[in-house]
C-alpha cells in the first residue's frame, strides 16, 4: 500500500527500513525522520504522517530497546525548582558582603 504519494513510499518500504535499522543497531530509537533518511527521501507536505506512523507502529522491531526504557526520573512534589539550589537569585541572597 502506498503511504506517501509525494515520495512514493509504501508500507513495505517503511517495514524494510525499520527492520534494517534495528538489525544494524539494536539500541537505536527509530523515528519517522530516520526512516525518511534511510530511504533517501524527505517529508514534503506531511499529509501522510498519520498513516506513516500507523505503518511504523505495526512493525514488531519498532519498540524502544530495554536499556532505554523507564529513564524518566519520577517527579517529587517539590521539584519545581528545576535543580537549582534554594536562594539562587541575587534578590534572595541578602546583602552583599
Question: What do you see in this structure?
Answer:
By secondary structure, the chain is mainly alpha-helical. It has a domain of 64 residues. The chain has three helices and two strands, in the order ββααα. The chain has a two-stranded antiparallel sheet. A hairpin with a 4-residue loop joins strand 1 and strand 2.
Question: Can you lay out the helices and strands and say which pair or pack?
Answer:
Elements: E1 2-4, E2 9-10, H1 11-24, H2 32-38, H3 49-57
Antiparallel strand pairs: 1-2
Major beta sheet summary: 2 strands, antiparallel
Supply the helix-strand structural class: mainly alpha
> How many E strands?
2
Oligomer: single chain
Which consecutive residue ranges, at least 5 long each, have pLDDT under 50?
none
C-alpha Rg, in Å? 22 Å
Strand content: 5-15%
Proportion of residues in helical segments: 25-40%
C-alpha termini separation:
72 Å
Q: What is the overall pLDDT average?
A: 83
Spatially, the strands of the biggest sheet line up as 1-2
Q: How would you describe the shape? A: elongated
Total of helices: 3
Order of helices and strands: EEHHH
Amino acid at each position: 500500500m502506498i503511504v506517501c504519494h509525494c515520495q512514493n513510499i509504501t508500507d513495505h518500504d517503511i517495514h524494510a527500513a525499520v527492520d534494517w535499522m534495528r538489525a544494524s543497531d539494536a539500541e537505536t530509537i527509530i523515528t519517522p525522520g530516520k526512516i525518511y533518511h534511510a530511504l533517501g527521501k524527505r517529508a514534503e507536505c506531511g499529509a501522510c504522517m498519520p498513516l506513516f506512523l500507523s505503518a511504523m507502529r505495526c512493525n514488531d522491531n519498532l519498540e524502544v530497546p530495554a536499556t532505554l526504557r523507564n529513564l524518566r526520573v519520577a517527579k517529587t512534589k517539590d521539584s519545581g525548582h528545576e535543580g537549582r539550589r534554594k536562594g539562587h537569585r541575587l534578590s534572595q541572597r541578602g546583602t552583599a558582603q
